Amino acid sequence: MSEKKKESITEKKISRRSMLKWTGALAAAVAIGVGTGYETNQLLRPVTEFTTTETVTYTKAEEKSFIQTSIGGLLRVYVRNDRVVRVEPVVLEEEERVPQWVIEARGKRFEQPHEKSLLHAFGLAYRRWVYSPNRLRYPMKRVGWEPNAKSKTYDNRGVGEFVRISWDEAYDLIANEMKRIKQNYGNSAIVRAGSSHKIHGMLGGEGAGTVADIVFNKFGGSTSVSGLGNSWVGHLSGATFVWGNWANIGAYPQDYYYPEGSHMCCFKDLLTDTLKNSNLVVYWSWDGTKIEGFKQGHEFEHHMRWIREAGIKTVSIAPDMNKVSAFHADKWIPIRATTDSAMALAIAYVWFKEDTWNKNWVSTHAVGVEKFMDYVLGKEDGVPKTPEWAEKICAVPAKITRALAREWAKGPTMLVAQICGANRGWYGHEWSRLMHVLQTLQGNIGRPGGNIFNAVDGSPWVKEYHIPYKRDGGWSAVYKIPPNPVTQFIVLVKFADAILNPPFTWSPSGKSGGSLQGGLTNFDPRKKYTYPMPGNSEIKMLFMIGARLHTEPPDIGKLAQVFRSSKIETFWLVNPWIEPLSKYADILLPANTNFERDDLGGFPSATGWGKHRWAVYLQKCIDSLFESKDEVEIYRELGRRLLGVDVLEGRTVEQVLKAIFDWSTISKWITYEEFKKKGYLVIPFPKDYFENYYMPALRWFYEKPVGEGLITPSGKLEIYSKPMGEWYGEKDPEISPIPKWYDPKVMKPNTWGKYPLIGMLDHPTYRYHSMFQDVAWLRELYKVKIDGYEYEPVYINPVDAAARGLKNGDIVRVYNNVGEILCGVRVTEKMIPGVVRLSYGSFYDPVDPRKKSLDRGGSANVLLSDEPMSKHAYGENLAHSPLEIEKWKG
């Protein structure tokens, strides 16, 4: 056989699963009419699959490669005949295979991984996601929906029967509906809502929301769905009141430059500081292997390994033996979920009784320790917060608490405890306050080797670099984003109640819904907000970018009823995939994935948080699949029809990308043409970094003779919060100026009920929230397959399983007074008795989508109460849910 023939591959058959099937609703199609330009036999139900086979011919010489990002890593994408055939990590060129930085500590060298990009499993499966059978192929209109509020079938939302329409018809329907609703009700009748952590991109994906903002705000604005950040609610409403800044540690101007309005933060140089100076690292309610793998391809795995190699003692406190506990901690301390604050108070008790706290530093850098000490020692309420007292609550033996307290006091101790942990549970703000108070008591805020960080941004980087990512910074360099003229907003945690049962009043919240972006000045719990606000309309139109039904909100069953309500006259959605939320919409618009467009990105992560290792030009790999379009073009066309103008002011997408490139620091190192051709840049790092740039976060504050400069009333760390004292007084039963222990079973009796198990809801390992669930490769790693159906796993201790007659592989009903779901049992000693683990984000699959019913999909959010975290934090509790489990008999 000739070499040429050896290279050729012919008649290669590729199975492609389609999501389109004839429905039995042809009669309805004749009654309502089908989309312009299509016949009645093209009535489609996009949630049913069939298999087709096509023939593709290619030769090896025709293979091309492109640079792209995924959620969790930088990709090289290989394409033949306009089809992606495989993805791999990006292997650096020889001259690039050098670490940007090397940390020298304790006689060792710690080098940043530098031979290739790091990838999470998501990245390796990205091709499967692009070609998912759930891809939304065409613009679609729900069967039975009619414009001009003439629909009689709102209760049919969720069934999922749609008719294919043309793009022109879709644009006309949406534009005409927006104009009608504006004329009849005003702009406040429109809601534009995004979704957290979409696919990567500066213009498309996550960044496309900016183009939508321009269109909607120029059109007259829309009502916002707002509130305290869902993952951060306990931190924002807790730690903020200790050190003043709402963002994570290091976000002060002295540490980090960030664009106005940005919420990005910095733990600048705390990895270096830990390796050089820490005696102990405490991972408290934190699984960095899981959380940080999402964002940066497991780079932090190396950091945690380095901490062990440096000989630093490590402890992990968590209800389950997570991967940090198993692989990166010298000791795992199991703790009952929801009770972390009790253990923290007991640690403070040991320090006060044994006089091992840093009295001198606290006296100059903090205020309010006397009242806190009175509470901890029992002088205030007659209950000393001893380790024995805490043991009855949190199940941690008193001797373990004492041993940890004594080791911690030897110092310096680095505390890894921030977002995505216990701060997301009931009264999570108290745990977050206590983490900062513990470090304050030891003088560990800014101290060499002692601080608080979550290790996302702890490694060396140069704060002056401007690398475009997500939506922050770059867009404002090209366009002036008009403000939203509509001031009405609905607090996220009570969105369903507000829509279904207006008028609805809530408090506390900030001027922008509780964001606390301006520090304490933007927060006042005494102010009341009402929906609808005076002079504003109830909601009549919903527009969503991406799906959030199965990811963020509590009580999904109730939220689904909002989407089915006749109050919502029009519901349209833009997304690349058919997902559970899609079935409730009236109009669906198919968007590109990032493989189908050119774009810019910084570090290839879902959030953009990173160390500026890479700058990325996302190279278009394939043509748009089916009739999907770039989101920029979707909103741009809507702008033309709504406003009669081009919202990009005549610029092409290429010109916008070039303008953002020119704004960024990338332009100092590479030309735009070279960057576009190569696809990435390994960002140069100053060789004199450790001599001239190194400054760990808040070192400036620690080293002041007298603490000042924090954004608090006193300028110091506030163990006693003066604003809280003014708002609530000294004797409020649910919130105090000093952090306290509040038992959720006592404080939330209506929610807690008589359910004996604590459900711990965490981030999934092989999904990013709900994304990638439709990738079969990944589902095989965690789903429990029984009789052909893939059930979401629930992890339970053998003691709890035996008490309920359960074994591995059983189908179980998991329920509480909020909802009920089906799961597959995984029995494991990695869970402590009394606590079970579920991961949120599983696709919502109700038995009857027309009403609140049993969810076969195992969506943990079905079980979450929409009761706010506390009267102080009107946000979502995403971490804990009381529940019971029984073997399914259906």
Blueprint of the fold:
Elements: H1 3-7, E1 8-18, H2 26-32, E2 43-44, E3 50-59, E4 64-70, E5 73-80, E6 83-89, E7 102-105, E8 108-111, H3 121-124, H4 126-130, E9 140-142, E10 162-164, H5 167-185, E11 190-193, H6 208-219, E12 224-226, H7 233-236, H8 240-243, H9 270-277, E13 280-284, H10 288-296, H11 299-309, E14 313-318, H12 323-327, E15 331-334, H13 340-354, H14 359-365, E16 366-367, H15 369-376, H16 387-394, H17 398-410, E17 413-416, H18 428-441, E18 451-452, H19 474-478, E19 489-491, H20 495-500, E20 504-506, E21 509-510, E22 523-524, E23 529-531, E24 541-545, H21 556-564, E25 570-575, E26 587-590, E27 599-601, E28 614-618, H22 631-643, H23 653-663, H24 672-678, E29 680-682, H25 689-692, H26 699-702, E30 717-718, H27 722-728, H28 744-747, H29 749-752, E31 757-762, H30 776-779, E32 784-786, E33 789-791, E34 793-796, H31 798-803, E35 811-815, E36 820-827, E37 835-839, E38 880-887
Parallel strand pairs: 11-24, 12-19, 13-14, 13-17, 14-15, 16-30, 17-18, 24-25, 25-26, 31-37, 34-36
Antiparallel strand pairs: 1-3, 2-10, 4-5, 5-6, 7-8, 9-10, 9-26, 20-23, 21-22, 27-28, 28-29, 31-38, 32-33, 35-36, 35-38
Helix pairs in contact: 5-22, 6-22, 13-16, 13-17, 13-18, 16-17
